[in-house]
Design goal:
- With 348 residues, the protein is an alpha+beta fold.
- Helices cover 25% and strands 18% of the residues.
- Helix 2 crosses helix 5.
- The longest helix has 22 residues, at 248-269.
- The chain is globular, with a radius of gyration of 21 Å.
- Bound molecules: 5,6-dihydrouridine-5'-monophosphate and zinc ion.
- 5,6-dihydrouridine-5'-monophosphate (H2U) binds at residues 52, 59-61, 76-78, 107, 152, 159-161, 165, 167.
Length: 348
């Protein structure tokens, strides 16, 4: 890698979404001095009678959860998208453009245990979550062009409930982020006759500089163009369009690598690490989508400690995203973290 980009302000291009990010490495050349926060080992009960996601409890909408023993999925009681919206749009010639959208949203409980997180669940229980994600993607993909599986974790991310859960939103149109990723992957495929993210992955595997963890089927890396301090990208090594295309052994390996990554995240500041993560598989449209490569994004907001988060304000809102710690530095720190959870006595 060009030495200049380790030392001087520069911009990096995000091949996947077409954005640029300003990187200011000269601001972090001092050695790492972030002190470890004293960890408050948050104690949560295995069952919380007040929790609207625990088995057997009543939800805000009045429905009662079954006494589920593994995973549980239900239609969001306050869904942002509705399946029976009438079809309407603007005339296409005015300044006030709009169009109707149909869809649905669901909530997925990852475990009946109120006190766990994905990082602390067993690999075989994480496989059950991956299986359910896959089934949901397959089912909703029959009716909707876009199926967004995601997890919003931690109060700092606006998550309303610590019970381990995620969401799925499905819509008949392609939202902004996948639209941009689709456009850029198509353009790359047309130009190079190869798959953008696979070419990118092979380059990254050659250099190793930004690789955090890998196994037989999957790789986690800090993308060259990362915006969030500890942002990562999780990719399969063979081309897959969607999570629902994975084989059993790939889902098992995925559970293993996810657990490894999430333990590293928790170990970074000795806390349950907040993030938004989600899957980007190929849209369910009429195309063959040979340009697409399945991946998951992890966007954690924390910068320096359990309480100091990266704000995307000021210059970021008005000009473009900016970061100090480079993608390479972030990858190195995560690579060096143990993948055994600190609550089990992991040594850093
Ligand atoms: P968060 O993971 O971002 O906190 O969202 C939880 C979702 O759960 C949220 O979209 C839904 C909210 O609408 N919810 C229900 O569907 N039923 C409830 O009883 C409470 C919360
Ligand atoms: Zn609960």
């Amino acid at each position: 890698m060009n030495l200049k980009i380790n030392n001087h302000p520069h911009r990096r291009y995000n091949q996947l979404n077409g954005d640029w990010v300003l990187v200011s490495p000269h601001r972090t050349r001092r050695p790492w001095q972030g002190q470890q926060e004293v960890t408050l080992k948050e104690i949560r009960p295995q069952y919380d009678p007040e929790c609207y996601l625990c088995p057997g409890n009543q939800r805000a909408g009045g429905n009662i959860n079954p006494k589920y023993t593994n995973t549980f999925v239900f239609t969001n009681d306050f869904t942002a998208l509705l399946p029976d919206t009438p079809d309407f749009k603007d005339t296409g010639q005015d300044l006030f453009r709009y169009s109707s959208v149909t869809g649905t949203s669901r909530v997925i409980c990852f475990s009946p245990r109120h006190d766990l997180t994905l990082a602390e669940m067993t690999e075989s229980d994480i496989v059950k979550v991956i299986d359910l994600w896959s089934e949901q993607i397959r089912e909703l993909g029959q009716n909707y062009e876009w199926v967004q599986v995601f997890e919003n974790k931690g109060e700092i991310m606006g998550c309303s409930n610590p019970h381990p859960h995620g969401q799925i939103w499905a819509s008949n149109t392609l939202p902004v982020e996948p639209y941009k990723e689709n456009r850029n992957q198509v353009a790359y495929y047309k130009k190079n006759k190869s798959v953008l993210l696979l070419d990118y992955l092979y380059e990254e595997l050659k250099h190793q500089e930004r690789i955090i963890i890998e196994n037989q089927y999957w790789v986690v890396l800090t993308p060259f163009w990362a915006v969030w301090p500890f942002e990562t990208l999780l990719l399969p090594k063979r081309q897959l369009l969607r999570l629902s295309d994975t084989l059993k052994e790939e889902r098992e390996a995925l559970a293993q690598i996810m657990k490894g990554l999430l333990c590293k995240y928790d170990n970074l500041f000795n806390i349950s690490f907040p993030y938004t993560m989600g899957w980007h598989g190929a849209p369910f449209d009429k195309n063959r989508n040979e340009h697409w490569h399945l991946h998951a994004h992890f966007y954690p907001p924390l910068l320096r400690s359990a309480t100091i988060k990266k704000f995307m304000v000021g210059y970021e809102m008005l000009s473009e995203a900016q970061r100090d710690i480079t993608a390479e530095q972030a990858a190195e720190r995560l690579r060096n973290m143990s993948d055994i959870h600190f609550k089990l006595g992991a040594d850093k």
